[in-house]
Amino acid sequence: MSGGYGEGGTTVTGEADTDGKRHGAQHAGTHTGADGGGQWSGEWVAQRLGVRLETSGDGPGGLRDLLGLALRRNPRRAHLLVSRVLGKHVPQLPAVVHGTGVGLGERVRDLLGEDAGRAVVLGYAETATALGHSVADGLGAPCLHSTRRPVPGVTPVGGFEEEHSHATSHLLLPEDPELLAGNGPLVLVDDEFSTGTTVLNTLTALHRSFPRERYVIVALTDLRGEADRVRLEKFAADLGARIDVVALVTGRVRLPGDVLERGAALVEAHDTPPPAPAPGPYEVHRVDLGWPLGLPDGGRHGFTPAHRARLEAALPAMAARIAAGLPDGARRVLVLGCEELMYAPLRLAGALAGATAAEVRFSTTTRSPVLAVDEPGYAIRTRLVFPAHDDPADGPGQRYAYNVAGGGFDAVVAVVDSAADTPALHAPDGLLAHLAAHTGRVLLAVVPSHRPLPRPLRGPEFSSYDAEDVGWLLQDLSDVTLEAPTEEREEAIQSGGAHYAESLPVEYQPSEEYQRLFHQALDASAARIARAVGAVTDTLLAERGHGIVLASLARAGTPVGVLMRRWARHVHGLDLPHYALSIVRGRGIDTNALRWLAAHHDPSDVVFVDGWTGKGAITRELAEALRPFPGFDPGIAVLADPGGCVRTYGTREDFLIPSACLNSTVSGLISRTVLRADLVGPGDFHGAKFYRELAASDVSRHFLDTVQARFDEVRPRVAEDVRALLAADRAPTWAGWKAVERISEEYGIGDVNLVKPGVGETTRVLLRRVPWRVLARRGAGADLDHIRLLAQQRGVPVEETDDLPYSCVGLIHPRYTRGATGADGRAVR
């Protein structure tokens, strides 16, 4: 788009609404540092430094209504404009702080019109993080804020400099690199728009990587001179973009020529060391917020409208937990955020104001050193000085909290993220000790630090499935040697020397005869599988709604999850998200995968999918693993439930599901999942391998396509099945578990984990473990042809019986060593 600031660009200004609801200027006064009994909180600096604030326009609101003045220890700028509606240096009502930003966001929405739906908001750290969020709230847009805290493993997509700031370097660390890549308007939010240098630095860096046609600059105050306006106009023309400016108040700050020298002299004359906290113990009351799993703590890595909805739904309960920790009769409460962490504490403060009779104020700590002068006409009356407690990239240093001491707060709620909940926070000279010296009670609420997780792996880079079929919440360990001989693995597992998930069996290479059996079984059972796929999918849609998210348990559940997704699309036109994640018996579920799901979807919509049930061990494992994550439903949906372990299934018959006959070559060429401490770190997904070299033997797509080809044929019978299932008592009977316990006792095994019931589990025993014998239900027929062939190839006896709830049961060799013999007396090979 040609043109620029002077060719279609506009400056939109406005004053605070008279009722104070949108912008809050009517309620901007605070107990300390703001009005001082009616005196302007910039008078002290204005008289001594010669600073004058001039408001442009005829509106009722002016710069003096929004700003006070203070002195800063900074060689680049002597004065500090102290906002009374920002919630940084001056404790303010949270409704004022949030409402100010929301009102500006609404103005931007009106300005952008139809383009508002494509906008992205970028706030500046540290001061404007909550303001940027609040503008995004009013606009209804996703939000990102710059950060001065590098995050290990997260590569910046950009950065810029803020020359006048105490800490100049800004990083951009979006979790989704595409967040800034769209062509919709980019809305840049800062507390003040003074010379425009920071904005020009930002736009120069961003436009180089993410060019777009329109930008909007939002600030509480627009303080540019004529030369700065001309410079922005020319910059926009050179960029070939339109740049609009939206500000609450427009004016100028007039400074004397020797302002830096005069300011430095005033600081030296009036700066006195703040008192240290009183020695001795102090008490801090921790509050468990119950922060929603996967919800980002703020916009450092991006914050979407979906995140906003989850936060707002959780705020009342979190505020109630904080309110329960307040002292009886509390009249004034401060919620204190931590540097860049402004938005979450702000929203908690707003919710707390509705959950208690106390007056609630909000402010945050800061990196900026500002002179404190206890005079009515000065904006920063008191300061607390304490060591940094979040391991900052620029090393140790001092941090500050202003206008907290002397504020008459009956309680202070310190809200930090978990990265800042360090020994330095709790030290005798730390922030909490300082707060305890100035209030009756200190509460500490810790928000989990959000660390971006990798994006799901997708085919064809990982797996032979189509990219849309499944996103793998796994890390690729294809280049790591993990395979071990079956006998070596079995001995290590049974001796307690290793867990089965720490290595992989050598992939079974089927003989031509076995491959023929697979294809025969698939042709014979495709319609049966399609019917079960339809039944379980439509039962879920009827009971859980059309917004479900499929999370298959890799890898046996993944082909079933793909088929369920294809059924929903083919029959109902639904595009269900589908991911695969790892769960390991004895070790639990991949909690990082849960975090990823919770960050991108409502946990209540997630449905866990597996291929079949055996004795129900994974069903129980999942229920236990999800106990700390109550937002997720621990129920599993399976194709076949012969063990009677779940209530959502396609059938309870134990029949051959051909995807159980093979390993990776029917599961997208993906290995079983791996969990080993030297390969999977605290921030990693569980691992798996992609066996690209087996592509010539891959039948994954053939399996899916063969079953899908029978969808239309089975639809009438699926409708009948679903009606019957919805009307039936589907409560788990756990009949399979009882049978396994009986078999373990009868055969002297003594370990139910060595008894693997059902066609699928028996196949796994024969392919991956050291089998001892197979129990087969008499008359099971063709469903067990491949079982009999595998048993013959491995020298394992098949024993027929009449009292099995399954078609067959595989028994792993008990107390296995490499010198052990099989049931027939022959050495196990």
UniProtKB/TrEMBL annotation:
GO terms for molecular function: glycosyltransferase activity. Residues 734-813 form the PELOTA RNA-binding domain. Keywords: Glycosyltransferase, Transferase. Residues 1-41 are annotated as: Disordered. Residues 1-11 have a biased composition (Gly residues). Residues 66-251 form the Orotate phosphoribosyltransferase-like domain. Residues 463-708 form the Cysteine protease StiP N-terminal domain. Residues 297-433 form the TRSP domain. Transmembrane segments: none annotated. It holds the Pfam family PRTase_2. This is Phosphoribosyltransferase. It comes from Streptomyces glaucosporus.
